[in-house]
Amino acid sequence: MSQITVHRAKELRGTLHVPGDKSISHRALMFAGLAKGTTSIKGFLNGKDCHATLQIMGQLGVTIHEVSPTELTIEGSGRNGLKEAEGPLDCDNSGTTMRLLAGLLSPQHFYSVLTGTPQLRSRPMGRIANPLREMGAIILGRKGGLLAPLTLAGTSQSPQLRGIRYEMPVASAQVKSAILLAGLNAVSRTTVIEPGPARDHTERMLQSMGAPLTIDNHKISVDPLTESLTPLNMTIPGDISSAAFLIVAACLVEGSDVELKGVGLNSTRMGIVTALLKMGANIEIANERVEGGEPVGDLRIRASELTGAEFGGRDIVTMIDEIPVLVLAASQAKGQTVIRDAGELRVKESDRIAVTAELLRSMGADVEERPDGFTVAGSSTIKGGVYDSHGDHRLAMMLAIAGLVAVGETTVTSAEVIPDSYPGFEDALRELGATVSAGG
Ligand code: S3P
User: I need a surface site. Which of 233, 285, 324, 435 has the fewest CB within 10 A?
Assistant: First the structure.
């Protein structure tokens, strides 16, 4: 078990690139496997979650060359080119890997077993397994088919999946993507209706690879592929979810002035920036452009006094992974912040409502748990100490950022999970002038 220790910071200054977007990196690997020919990817996130996807695509017969840790070339063998793996497919701790692969593999005429860490095996899989079953997939799992390991019992005799029209009960990009991926290999049109704007990287990437996908507001349809996807040369933008930690740090640490280059600015992911701007943050966006079908730009963040605000409804899905660090920001803002409609946080890598509230309260913040979010009274003085990440990468980083404004020294234990999404996080903090030490 590793730990990091963070000291209260005087000011953060500098210019950085954050690592590649996790969601886009997973999709690039999977969709390249369905393409016919060579895909080249730059800016791949060399983190643990994406590595699980990389390993599995290899097990399914896709040839992947690691030119460098962040640069890959992938030889896709076409829409019917995936092969039965010899063993179980280990998704490690990655929900995106398991849920998207369930969609990708459901129509295949071979047998697959998807498994992962005890944490992942306790996360809800009925949300993807049930609609995929409606399409005709045979999916078995623990607890009556709701938990992993999941068995996808395809055989050479299996009938092809049929398209469905599915109204998603929760706004989830993972569920949306799983159904659309299965739909690419079904016999008829599949339509997904989403209740809110969940991240749309799947739609963007599939469209630019030539998939028959149409979008009508929150209704997305795919027709069965008649040809393989076209391979792309893609540069993956910096991950706004990783940038979020540095953005909040720069807002909170007095005297800070930080520039983050090449960050993905997709509107379905921008909730954290919108929320902080609403709270009075000083964030400038420059050099906006489109790269590989995704909006990208540079962010300049200067320290500012934040004021509490209310968030709920459709705000939530566009910042779902950033809410723990937003709660930290709210604890340092003037006045009350209320976050509603964020019940999905309870089924992430940890119960992020309970654990965020518990951790920030133990640091001295005034954070109350609501069934679907938080009530935060601002202007708390938070104190250092030893705090455990509960094996959740985003909470480990939230604690480290809290350490930059806490009185005294903050040690984050179970910090080995940070590279699940942000390899090089400690170095990034050091580059900005923070004092961080790592320990075994
Ligand atoms: C992701 C979607 C979100 C997010 C996760 C990555 C994706 O999950 O929390 O970190 O890449 O599709 P849900 O779709 O379950 O909300």
Answer: 233
